[in-house]
Amino acid sequence: MKDLLLLTPPFTQLNTPYPATSYLKGFLNTKSISSYQMDLGIEVILELFSEDTFSELFEIAYQNDSIQSENCERIYALKDAYLQPLNEVIRFLQGKNNTLARQICTDNFLPRASRFDQLDDMDWAFGSMGMQDKAKHLATLYLEDLSDFIVECIDDNFGFSRYAERLGQSANSFDELYEELQEDTTLIDLITLEILNDQLKITQPKLVCISVPFPGNLYSALRCGQFIKENYPDIKIAMGGGFPNTELRSVSDTRVFEFLDYITLDDGELPIELLAEAVCSNDKSEASTFKRTFILEDGKVVYKNDTLKADYKQIDLGTPDYSDLLLEDYISVIEIANPMHSLWSDGRWNKLTMAHGCYWGKCTFCDISLDYIKIYEPIAAKILVDRMEQLIEQTGENGFHFVDEAAPPALMKALALEIIKRKLTVTWWTNIRFEKNFTKDLCLLLKASGCIAISGGLEVASDRLLKLIDKGVTVSQVAQVTQNLTEANIMVHSYLMYGYPTQTVQETVDSLEMVRQLFEMGIIQSGFWHQFALTAHSPVGLNPSEYGITPNYKNITFANNDVDFKDHTGIDHSKFSFGLKKSLFNFMHGIGFELSLQEWFDFKIPKTQIDPYFIEECLETDPNFNVKPSAKIVWLGALPIVSEQVKTKRGVTRHQLAFTFHSNLSSFQIVLEKEPGEWLLRNLQLLQPQNEKLRSFSDLKKDFEMEMEDFELFWFSKPLLLLKANGLLIL
Q1: Do 45 and 14 meet the contact criterion of CB atoms below 8 Å apart?
Q2: Please, which residues have CB within 8 angstroms of residue 254's CB and are 6 or more apart in sequence?
Q3: What average pLDDT does range 481-493 have in this prediction?
Q4: How far is the C-alpha of 149 from the C-alpha of 115, rounded, in Å?
Q5: Alpha-carbon distance 661 to 667, whole Å?
Q6: Which helix H or strand E contains 4, and what residues bound it?
Q7: How far apart are CA 40 and CA 194, in angstroms?
Q8: CA distance 354 to 531
Q9: pLDDT at 117
Q10: How far, in whole angstroms, is CA 553 from its chain's centroid?
Q11: CA dihedral of 421, 426, 430, 435, whole degrees rounded to 10
Q12: From CA 511, how far away is CA 269, in angstroms rounded?
């Protein structure tokens, strides 16, 4: 028995649990509140994509005469070929049957329907990635064939990472969702509710907390609430998460509370603690207080925020707890043959947050008025790495996805140094702003600590629009940062935007030219275009007239986030979608750079006004001979092998030290006069990141000039420049 059941309804990711319940369980542990967590999504997927269940689906589709398309006729005709390997393909994608990869990669092992018509260039995508990844991609296409069969013949609301998403998107009114919930349960509902019922009998919770991160979880969340209300009327139900936080801040429809008792907003720790006290306590003498919670009171939806308690600091929240979750059963898939995109769906990642909120907090398209972005609070690097070590011990996984809005570079530096100091072998990635603090040396440090990839928003590759967005970067700056990351062997994915208010056709074309050059220079490896969406809580949404748009507001009784609007330019930006995405697909494959931009569109576009060498010229920077006195100096390499040598020329004898440095890939040598050489040897040990206190540039200069003269001449000499190119970092 547990007091609380923490629940993620179908569906989110297949490869790793969404972290909300793990964060919450970690906090509840610090308060000695007993809880159990489950990811209903992965459990439903595993039941659905089994030989026994899918055999029933084929029979149901046949009996209902719901097989209409040639594609599904083919899948049904090959049903035995689809069913026979299904259980073993799932085990392969779980990492439990790796030898099956060789079978999957043969042409006639898996049956193929329409998903295989879109098969990417296997040599491009997997030539350097290996057979396991190729097999994962083919197995994913095979499952997507079966998914298409479900959508056409069984349940058109189904999606691998979402369910009935359309019902939750921009649902200003609750009517359509409510009507759907009055209909008979679907087959997928039945599987979901049967698994939930089994867990309710075991756990016997007093409070069920349902996390709804996305619109694609909302319908199932309410269906679960409906089932609990009908069958376990004494259990209370709370809903929180990303969707309520952004969409349900204006909810007023009382019918929502036929499925729930509470809706909490923003950080869930204190709201859930107070609900647990109210629901689970045997002492009901004191009236309950609430934190950011909607309840139904006297027939009306009421917002309660009457506790005097303040939200907890990040340091007090505890380490996320992944116990109870079926970590060995998640499925690694590769939906798109792109190595960066595979990070989202391939492999199990422990999720952590470096800082609550966003340290920049100014981008005008972003919901910066909401607390989850507005309130910035970083966590100390030592505490972060403590939590990393705890999660490695708990989960057996050393891969980390830091799920920050934008990871702060100063904290990333401290984190990297702490990882290196503790000699941890970890792999991690996160989201950043392409800001100037990501110097070449910082990127090398991040790579040395295990950073393999970053994603970041270039958004609109136009300096005028970047200024209007208040992004705080320029295209030139983005180019320099992405070059620094790429040269450090950190993969770069860029979010790209089109259709921002006041954006002209010329700016869209010029933005595409910027992106073309970035890919041609090889300093961005992956990207994704999305059309600007107006959200109610962003600066644009709060002050639309300042950005040249007219919103089409609707009466809000349920969800309120995405807002329809009219751009005063009158441009139909959606017509650019296909050409932008097609060109990007080619650029990611390393082709199409020589084509005119007009080739990607079936309508007339203006010629770009961007110089064809603009990005290349952005990357031409002069040597920087200015070093901040406070800059920390770090030596990442091994200590050298040193030999003394004596040279006599024209009667002058010189004593020198020859340093031989060995790295993982190569070796190199430098020669210094004996006195500065001895100074360097002594200081290299002190510059290693394992030392408790890092030395600054001014510390080194002062120390050097106690024995010798002109530190700058020594620091910028050829031997030191070679050392700086091989692991001597200025941070």
Answers
A1: yes
A2: 296, 299, 300, 301
A3: 96
A4: 11
A5: 6
A6: strand 4-8
A7: 11
A8: 29
A9: 84
A10: 31
A11: 40
A12: 42
Give which of 685, 703, 702 is closest to 634, Cα–Cα: 685
| Closest to 365 in 3D by CA, of 480, 247, 181, 501 | 501
CA distance 668 to 614: 35
Give 641's strand partners: 660
Q: What are the C-alpha distances in Å from 522 to residues 153, 215, 354, 542, 615?
A: 44, 36, 29, 38, 11
- For 524-590, the three-class secondary structure string (H helix, E strand, C coil) is CCEEEEEECCCECCCHHHHCHHHHCEEECCCCCCCCCCECCEEECCCCCHHHHHHHHHHHHHHHHCC
- Specify whether the backbone of 396 is left (phi greater than 0), alpha (psi in -120 to 50) or beta: left
Q: Which of 185, 172, 264, 270 is nearest to 219 (CA)?
A: 185
- What pLDDT score was predicted for residue 126? 52
Residue 456 C-beta-side C-alpha neighbours within 13 Å: 28
Residue 28 and residue 35: Cα distance in Å, rounded? Answer: 7
Q: For residue range 135-160, what is the model confidence (pLDDT) as tens digits?
A: 998 999 999 999 999 999 999 999 88
- The CA-based angle 62-65-69, given to 5 degrees, is 95
Please name which of 320, 266, 321 lies closest in space to residue 290, comparing C-alpha atoms.
266
The span from the CA of 517 to the CA of 494, in Å, is 14
- Residues sharing a CB contact under 8 Å with residue 553, sequence separation 6 or more, in sequence order: 563
The pLDDT of residue 338 is 61
Distance of alpha carbon 642 from alpha carbon 152, whole angstroms: 71
Length of the chain: 731
- Average pLDDT on 495-509 reads 94
CA distance 289 to 465: 46
* Contact between residue 262 and residue 236 where contact means Cβ atoms under 8 Å apart: yes
Q: Which two tokens stand for residue 529?
A: 């275009």
Q: Distance from first CA to last CA of the chain, Å, rounded?
A: 52
How many Å apart are CA 535 and CA 562, to the nearest integer?
5
Cα–Cα–Cα angle for 317, 322, 328, rounded to 5 degrees: 165
User: Is residue 554 very low, low, confident or very high in pLDDT (cuts 50, 70, 90)?
Assistant: confident
Residue 339 has pLDDT above 70, yes or no: no
| Span 562-567, average pLDDT | 86
In the beta sheet, which residues pair with residue 239? 210, 263
The full DSSP string for 385-426 is HHHHHHHHHHHS--EEEE--SS--HHHHHHHHHHHHHTT---
Indicate the pTM of the whole model: 0.93
The amino acid occupying position 26 is: G
CA distance 500 to 466: 10
Residues 6+ apart with CB under 8 A from 550: 544, 565, 566, 568
Q: CB of 685 within 8 A of CB of 704? A: no
- Residues 111-132 have pLDDT tens digits of 999 998 876 555 555 555 578 8
Sign of the CA dihedral running 134, 139, 142, 144? negative
3-state secondary structure of 479: helix
Q: Is the pLDDT of residue 78 over 80?
A: yes
**Strand order, beta sheet including 632-635:** 695-696, 632-635, 728-730
**How does the average pLDDT of the chain come out, rounded?**
92
Cα separation values, 259 from 54, 216, 648, Å: 30, 17, 91
Q: Answer yes or no: is pLDDT of 286 > 80.
A: no
Tell me, what amino acid is at 497? M
Cβ-based burial of 442 (10 A; exposed 0-12, middle 13-18, buried ≥19): buried
